[in-house]
Design a protein that fits this description.
Blueprint (H helix, E strand, L loop, with lengths): L10 E5 L4 E6 L4 E6 L6 E11 L4 E7 L5 E7 L4 E7 L5 E12 L8 H17 L6 H5 E7 L8 H9 L6 E10 L2 E9 L6 E10 L2 E11 L17 H4 L7
Parallel strand pairs: 9-13
Antiparallel strand pairs: 1-2, 1-8, 2-3, 3-4, 4-5, 5-6, 6-7, 7-8, 10-11, 11-12, 12-13
């Protein structure tokens, strides 16, 4: 993770157990905080030091005018800020708060969508190209939810299914679209049914694991003049077309 991905311009309301604060990330060297009420209420612009920790997590530290020091670990994947503060009188505070974005950053900074798409692509190719059942434990959450009625529930059931797949089963990925915590992937699988099938798999991702799955499958129909000569699936579709949301 690079400091270039620090979300400059982002404004957020942070809710700690005992008070609320608004933060504006003015630059990689300054932020403004506003505590609206309570014994700590004030508005101040402080000089900050930012250290990227990886996976959309940054350590942000500063010293305030009254001498108080603060270190925030800002976790943009989970929407949490972990704060440690030493006040001028020596009192030490350790808090975790949730935050709501009130103004987005000036530029795109979050690589979570790319990481989520990479996770789904790895899962689909590991399981249904290489038939590597051992990856199920690493990529899928323990409480994995399956919406395909022909597949038993749970991660262990999925691992058993993959371990017993015919060597004829082979998956080809195509277009991948990600938004929020969801990733959809368009692909073709052979050897799953009597005829090749075109499938859209939809996953929900939580804490870097696949936690829920839906799919829609249909038998592939060969290209004919009546269909305008356009195939149902092209394994290069994701590589050559820049659809919104696929970057």
């Amino acid at each position: 993770m690079s400091i270039d991905r620090f979300p400059i311009g982002l404004e957020m309301d942070v809710s700690y157990p005992t008070f609320h604060v608004s933060l504006t990330l003015l630059s990689v060297t300054q932020l403004r905080f506003k505590i609206k009420e309570g014994p700590f209420s004030r508005i101040e612009i402080v000089d900050i030091h930012v250290v990227p920790l990886g996976n959309s997590i940054f350590a942000v530290s500063w010293q305030e005018k009254d001498g108080a020091t603060v270190t925030n670990v800002q976790d943009y994947d989970r929407g949490l800020i972990h704060s440690c503060a030493t006040l001028t009188g020596g009192q030490f505070l350790r808090m975790t708060g949730t935050f709501a974005v009130t103004r987005p950053a000036d530029r795109f900074f979050d690589d979570r969508l790319q990481r989520n798409k990479a996770l789904v692509l790895e899962a689909m190719t590991s399981l249904f190209q290489r038939h590597d059942a051992s990856t199920v434990q690493r990529l899928y959450a323990p409480n994995y939810i399956q919406h395909n009625p022909s597949i038993p529930q749970g991660r262990d059931a999925l691992q058993t299914l993959v371990a017993g797949l015919s060597q004829d089963a082979y998956y080809e990925p195509g277009l991948i679209v990600a938004e929020g915590v969801f990733v959809a992937i368009h692909g073709r699988i052979r050897g799953w049914a009597e005829a090749p099938q075109v499938v859209v798999d939809l996953f929900r991702i939580e804490d870097g694991k696949l936690v829920e799955h839906w799919d829609v499958l249909q038998n592939e129909v060969p290209v004919t003049a009546a269909l305008g000569g356009i195939s149902m699936f092209d394994p290069e579709e994701g590589a050559h077309r820049a659809y919104p949301g696929t970057a």
